[in-house]
C-alpha cells in the first residue's frame, strides 16, 4: 500500500536510482540505432547486430580482421565460466563437508585460514601469480586463469558450503552409513541432494565470477585465441577502432550481459546471498 | 578424509599462500621480465619513500578510499536501506534490485556505459542533461576526473552495505518500532534513536571491510581513466603497482618495485583481515548481522 507520506521518499529514491536506469537504457538504445542523443535513439536500425551472422566484427574501410570471432570468444568465456563454477562446486563441497563433519588435527587452523583469506584481497598478488604461472608454463592459457580464479574464490566457497552442511542433521547420514554406504557414497548420495541451495549459490557465484573476469584475463592471456568477452569489450572500448561504431560495441556488450540478466531476473535470491558473503569487491 | 580436503588445500597453498611469500621475496629483487632473482636488499623500499609519484599516488589513494567510502559504500548504502525499509516492501525491493545491477554487470561493460555517458560531445548523456539547464558541454574525464571515478566506483560499491544494512534493519523486532510509534515518535526519531544505534555493528563492519576492498581495488579506475588524465591524476596505490609490473611505457617491467608496493597492501590486508576476524567475530556476522539488543 503506497500512502501519501511515502511518496516524497519514493520520489527521492527514484532520483537517486535514475543514473543506473539511464545507463542501461543508453546501452540498449545505442545497440538499435545509428546514433544516440542523450538516451534517445536516432534512426532505428538492426545493422549493429549483423556480426551475429558469422561472428566477425568488421572495421569499416578495411577487410583486415582486427577482432577475434565473437562465437569463439563466447566459447572461451563459457569454458572459463563453466569450468570455474564446476571446480569450485566440487572442491568447496568436499572441503566444506569435511570441515563440517570431521574432527581432525588442524581443523580450526584451516577454518581460520579460510576466514582470514576470505577478506584478504587476492588481486594484490598479481605479480607473484604471474611468476608462478610462467614457471608452471600456464601463462597465456585459459587453464592458468581458471586455476587462479578457483583458488582465490575457494575460501569464500568453503565458507558458504560449510554453513549449508552444518544445517543438515546427522541422522540421515548416519542411517546411510549404517546401511553400508562408504563416507564418500553417503556424502554424494544423501548429503549433497540436501544442500541444493548452497550448491546453486556456489555455482552461480562461480559462473558469474568466471564470466565477468577481466584483470586476470588481461594480465595472464596474451593471444587473441583465448580472449574472453571482457577482453573483446575492452578492446572495442579502448582500441584503435573503438570510436568507429559504438552501436556494434553495445550489441556485443548486450550479448555479454545475457547470463547476468537471466540470473538477475530469475535467481536474485542467490545473488543476494552472494553479496552478503561477498568478498573484496568495491 | 584427505580426498575431501586435498584439492582445495593444495590450491590455497600454491595460489594463495605461496604468492604472499613470493610477493615479499620479489620485493627484495630488481626482477624484470627475465625473472632473474637479483637481490637488492631494501632498495625498492628506499625508492618508494623517495619516489614523488608514490607520494602523489598515496594521497590519491586516501582521497579515493575515503570519499567513495563516505559518499557511497557507507553513506548512500545507509540512505538507500533506511528509505527502502520504510516505504512499501515491493517498491523498496525494486529499488534495491536496481542497485544490485551495477555490481553484477561485467566491469568492462559497466565502465563502457560510463565512458559513453561522460563523453565531451553535447549529445552524451551528462552533457545532454546539463543542456536542459542551459549549461555548456564539459569534457568530464579531463575537467573532473575524480568525481567521475568516485561515481563509477560508488554505484557499484553501495550495494554491499545496502544489503547488510537492510538485513540488519529488517531483523529489528517490530515491537520496538511499534512501541516508539505509540509513544509518538516520528520516523526520523525512530531512525535516529532506535534503528541507527541498533545497526552499530553492521555499520562498523561495512566501514572496515569496504576500506580494505577500496584500498586494493583498481579495476574500474583502470577501465575509466587508467590513472590519467595527465600525470598520475587518478592513479591509486594498487593501480601504480599494476602499472609498474605490467604496463610500463617502453616496456620497462619493474616486478621488484611493483612487488614492494604490493607488499605494503599485502601486509595491510593481512593485518586488517586478522583484525576483522577478531573484532567482528566474522563467523557469527556472516550468518546473521549482529544486533545488540
In brief, what are we looking at here?
The complex is a heterodimer of chains A (282) and B (293). Chain A is 67% helix and 4% strand.
Question: How does this structure look, described?
Answer:
- Chain A has 282 residues and is mainly alpha-helical.
- Chain A folds into two domains: 4-45, no CATH class; 70-277, MetI-like (MetI-like fold, Orthogonal Bundle).
- Chain A has twelve helices and two strands.
- A two-stranded antiparallel ribbon of chain A has the order 1-2.
- In chain A, a hairpin with a 2-residue loop joins strand 1 (33-37) and strand 2.
- The radius of gyration of chain A is 23 Å and the shape is globular.
- Chain A starts with 6 loop residues before the first helix and ends in a 5-residue tail after the last helix.
- By secondary structure, chain B is mainly alpha-helical.
- Chain B has a single domain (44-287), classed as MetI-like (MetI-like fold), CATH 1.10.3720.
- In chain B, 74% of the residues lie in helices and 0% in strands.
- Chain B has 15 helices and no strands.
- Chain B has helices at residues 2-26, 43-50, 52-86, 89-104, 107-117, 125-132, 140-143, 145-170, 174-182, 187-198, 200-216, 219-224, 237-246, 255-279, 282-287.
- The model of chain B is unreliable at 285-293 (pLDDT under 50).
- Classes of the chains: A mainly alpha (282), B mainly alpha (293).
- The interface between A and B is large, with 100 and 102 residues.
Amino acid at each position: 500500500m503506497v500512502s501519501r507520506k511515502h511518496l516524497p521518499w519514493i520520489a527521492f529514491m527514484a532520483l537517486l536510482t535514475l543514473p543506473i536506469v539511464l545507463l542501461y537504457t543508453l546501452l540498449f538504445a545505442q545497440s538499435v540505432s545509428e546514433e544516440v542523443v542523450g538516451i534517445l535513439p536516432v534512426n532505428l536500425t538492426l545493422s549493429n547486430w549483423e556480426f551475429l551472422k558469422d561472428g566477425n566484427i568488421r572495421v569499416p574501410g578495411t577487410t583486415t580482421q582486427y577482432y577475434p570471432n565473437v562465437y569463439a570468444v563466447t566459447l572461451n568465456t563459457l569454458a572459463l565460466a563453466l569450468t570455474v563454477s564446476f571446480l569450485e562446486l566440487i572442491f568447496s563441497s568436499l572441503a566444506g563437508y569435511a570441515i563440517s563433519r570431521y574432527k581432525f588435527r588442524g581443523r580450526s587452523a584451516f577454518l581460520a585460514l579460510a576466514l582470514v583469506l576470505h577478506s584478504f584481497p587476492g588481486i594484490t598478488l598479481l605479480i607473484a601469480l604471474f611468476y608462478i604461472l610462467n614457471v608452471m608454463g600456464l601463462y597465456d592459457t585459459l587453464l592458468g586463469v581458471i586455476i587462479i580464479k578457483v583458488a582465490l574464490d575457494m575460501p569464500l566457497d568453503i565458507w558458504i558450503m560449510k554453513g549449508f552442511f552444518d544445517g543438515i542433521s546427522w541422522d540421515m547420514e548416519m542411517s546411510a552409513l549404517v546401511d553400508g554406504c562408504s563416507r564418500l557414497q553417503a556424502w554424494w548420495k544423501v548429503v549433497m541432494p540436501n544442500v541444493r541451495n548452497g550448491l546453486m549459490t556456489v555455482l552461480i557465484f562461480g559462473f558469474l565470477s568466471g564470466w565477468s573476469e577481466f584483470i586476470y584475463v588481461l594480465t595472464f592471456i596474451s593471444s587473441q585465441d583465448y580472449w574472453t568477452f571482457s577482453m573483446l569489450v575492452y578492446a572495442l572500448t579502448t582500441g584503435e577502432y573503438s570510436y568507429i561504431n559504438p552501436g556494434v560495441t553495445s550489441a556485443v556488450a548486450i550479448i555479454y550481459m545475457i547470463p547476468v540478466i537471466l540470473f538477475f531476473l530469475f535467481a536474485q535470491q542467490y545473488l543476494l546471498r552472494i553479496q552478503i558473503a561477498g568478498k573484496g569487491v568495491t | 578424509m584427505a580426498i575431501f580436503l586435498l584439492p582445495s588445500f593444495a590450491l590455497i597453498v600454491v595460489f594463495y599462500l605461496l604468492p604472499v611469500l613470493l610477493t615479499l621475496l620479489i620485493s627484495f629483487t630488481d626482477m624484470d621480465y627475465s625473472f632473474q632473482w637479483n637481490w637488492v636488499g631494501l632498495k625498492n623500499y628506499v625508492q618508494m619513500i623517495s619516489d614523488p609519484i608514490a607520494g602523489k599516488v598515496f594521497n590519491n589513494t586516501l582521497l579515493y578510499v575515503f570519499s567513495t567510502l563516505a559518499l557511497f559504500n557507507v553513506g548512500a548504502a545507509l540512505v538507500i536501506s533506511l528509505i527502502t525499509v520504510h516505504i512499501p516492501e515491493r517498491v523498496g525491493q525494486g529499488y534495491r534490485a536496481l542497485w544490485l545491477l551495477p555490481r553484477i554487470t561485467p566491469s568492462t561493460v559497466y565502465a563502457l556505459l560510463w565512458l559513453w555517458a561522460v563523453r565531451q560531445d553535447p549529445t552524451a548523456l551528462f552533457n545532454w542533461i546539463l543542456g536542459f539547464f542551459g549549461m555548456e558541454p564539459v569534457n568530464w574525464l579531463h575537467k573532473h576526473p575524480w568525481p567521475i571515478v568516485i561515481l563509477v566506483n560508488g554505484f557499484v560499491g553501495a550495494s554491499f552495505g545496502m544489503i547488510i544494512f537492510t538485513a540488519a534493519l529488517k531483523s529489528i523486532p517490530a515491537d520496538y518500532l511499534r512501541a516508539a510509534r505509540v509513544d509518538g515518535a516520528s520516523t526520523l526519531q525512530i531512525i535516529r534513536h532506535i534503528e541507527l544505534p541498533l545497526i552499530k555493528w553492521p555499520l562498523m563492519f561495512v566501514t572496515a571491510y569496504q576500506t580494505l576492498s577500496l584500498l586494493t581495488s583498481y579495476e574500474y579506475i583502470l577501465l575509466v581513466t587508467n590513472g590519467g588524465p595527465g600525470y598520475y591524476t587518478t592513479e591509486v596505490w594498487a593501480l601504480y603497482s599494476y602499472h609498474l609490473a605490467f604496463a610500463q611505457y617502453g616496456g620497462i617491467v619493474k616486478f621488484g618495485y611493483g612487488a614492494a608496493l604490493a607488499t605494503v597492501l599485502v601486509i595491510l590486508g593481512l593485518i586488517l583481515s586478522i583484525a576483522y576476524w577478531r573484532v567482528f567475530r566474522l563467523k557469527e556476522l556472516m550468518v546473521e548481522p549482529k544486533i545488540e539488543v
